[in-house]
Amino acid sequence: MADVRVVVDERALAEYKRSGDVLNLLMDVGQPVERYAQMGAPKATGEGAASIRREPVMDLATWTVRISWDRPHYYLYFHDRGTVHLPERPFMEPALEAAIA
Question: In the beta sheet, which residues pair with residue 88?
Answer without folding.
Answer: none
